[in-house]
Specification:
Layout lengths: L8 H21 L2 H21 L14 H16 L8 H4 L35 H4 L4 H12 L4 H8 L3 H19 L9
Helix pairs in contact: 1-2, 1-3, 2-3, 3-6, 3-7, 6-7, 6-8, 7-8
Length: about 190
């Protein structure tokens, strides 16, 4: 745009960070408006912590990169559990845009194989339809999105769910299986 300075690398990094958090919230909540509200609320909390000198309110392991994801996860889990999210909105309003930040590899395994605990994180979880995510319990949805779509470590996801890492792995595996069956209703997995 004429008259505007080029975007600085700090601005670009801040926008990429916002887009990542927004993508997480959108997949967990299924609503653009709710996702933006959660990202704003997390940002206000972060600024308030900086003003008071508080360093880590996540209760997690304190990994600097995952703190915002943990905060978003907690806010989304609270919203899902309280029923504040609009599950009856028309699908058009709940479909994430194609450019919403969602890691995932279109060429990754998953084109017919049932999920395994050994599958790499982000193996197409970003491409899961919201209708399939709507079938998950709030803790399953948050665990699935954070771990499988955004590769947040189980220990950090566990701090969001207030569960052990082992229990979080089990919740995520259950969610992965439920999503697989929801997206392939007429298929049955081959016996190993």
């Amino acid at each position: 745009m004429p008259g505007h300075a080029p975007q600085s690398s700090n601005d670009a990094a801040a926008q990429a960070h916002h887009d990542r958090l927004y993508g997480m919230a959108l997949r967990m909540l299924g609503s653009h408006a709710d996702a933006e509200d959660v990202v704003r609320k997390a940002g206000r909390r972060r600024l308030a912590r900086q003003d008071t000198g508080s360093t880590d309110s996540t209760g997690g392991t304190g990994s600097t990169d995952d703190r915002p994801a943990v905060e978003i996860g907690r806010l989304c889990l609270d919203a899902l559990r309280s029923g504040r999210t609009p599950r009856d909105r028309p699908r058009d309003d709940r479909t994430p845009p194609a450019d919403a930040d969602a890691p995932g590899d279109a060429d990754a395994p998953g084109d017919g194989d049932p999920p395994r605990d050994t599958d790499p994180p982000g193996d197409a979880a970003g491409a899961v339809p919201l209708a399939a995510l709507d079938r998950l319990r709030p803790d399953e949805r948050v665990a699935f999105v954070l771990h499988d779509a955004y590769a947040v470590p189980y220990e950090e996801v566990a701090s969001v769910l207030a569960r052990s890492a082992a229990a979080t792995e089990a919740i995520t595996a259950r969610a992965r299986a439920r999503v697989w069956f929801a997206t392939r209703p007429h298929e049955t997995p081959d016996a190993p």
